[in-house]
Amino acid sequence: MDWSIWTFCYAEGRLPLDFVRGTPIASNHGHIAVPMIVSLLQATDGKRILIDTGFSGGVSMTGPGFKDFVRTDELLRRHGIAPNEIDTLVLTHLHFDHAGNIDGFPNAHIFVQRYEYESWKQVITEFGGDGVGKDKWPFSSLDVENFKSLDAAIAAGRVTLLDGDYQLHEGVTCRIAKDTHSFGIQWLEVATSGGRYALAGDVCYTYFNVERMWPPGYMQGNAWNILREMKRIKEVAGDDLARLLPGHDIEIFTRYRTGSPHGTRIAELHLSPGHTSLLG
Fold it and tell me: Which of 119, 149, 228, 254 could form a disulfide with 183 if both were Cys (CB 3.0 to 4.6 A apart)?
């Protein structure tokens, strides 16, 4: 089994550099463009896995809006991929920019870590009495409305709550990174004919985080846990990080083959023999 891997930029934000690279090492260094991404895996047998769903209309915690926003179901449709034909969806975690727009993929079976789901439900109950807006730290990365869609999917039997590392399919393994960026965030290890790839998500925002072993400035877990998990990610991605996909690094679109055939940037991490490139 081999897997092609594509990553799409569905919107672009702008954040202080130390938000993503870490403080104080990147403090007072201005702002940087930050891509919002989702990824698509396609197996040699045609199986497709979507990783995260983006948002339907996200509002940034820092105030400035996002540019070049395309809803992820529309983005896939532009590339000839019908959203209702996506049957497997992995939510790395439940922050607003990763777990919105679930309704855009009505037939997908969703995989998310139980610890992630139950911890955020507890936060909503424990701290939501005074409001759940992004002006309050517990909800600064959350869109509570997304839980209506997720809970409806659970009620419909479309959700599997994972309890740790889990082999999703041959060559694709979910790796829990407990109490790092979020409660039960997970990243994916994908075995291809070109080596093992670490789709690290927000466990490490940028290549810089792993290169310097420096936690980002914004997280909701434990910095020591992040460092330990980045070591595990590096073992997969290689010392040169040639097979690393970080969560929010604009360098993704310079380190991999990139194109914009339908007005949105795509990075092609690995193209399996026999598959057609999406770069045009």
Answer: 119
Closest CA to 182 of 205, 155, 148: 205
Residue with tokens 């809803």: 71
Q: DSSP state, 114? A: H
pTM for this one? 0.96
| Contact present, 242 and 248 (Cβ < 8 Å) | no
For tokens 């922050």, name the residue: 95
Question: Among 3.30.365.10, 3.40.605.10, 3.60.15.10, 3.40.50.970, what is the CATH number of 3-270?
Answer: 3.60.15.10
Number of Cα atoms under 13 Å in the Cβ half of residue 251? 14
At 217, is the secondary structure helix, strand, or coil? coil
Structural domain spans, the chain: 3-270
Quick check: helix, strand or coil at residue 12? strand
The distance in angstroms from the start CA to the end CA of the chain is: 24
The Cα 122–Cα 279 span in angstroms is 42
Look up residue 138 and give its two tokens. Answer: 């517990």
Please report, for residues 29, 145, 149, 239, 248, the alpha-carbon distance to residue 207 in angstroms, rounded to integers and kept in the order given. 17, 32, 33, 11, 9
* Order of all β-strands in the sheet with 186-192: 166-169, 172-176, 186-192, 195-201, 244-246
**pLDDT averaged over consecutive 10-residue blocks of the chain (280 residues)?**
97 95 96 97 95 85 80 96 96 97 97 98 96 92 96 98 98 98 98 98 98 96 97 97 98 97 95 93
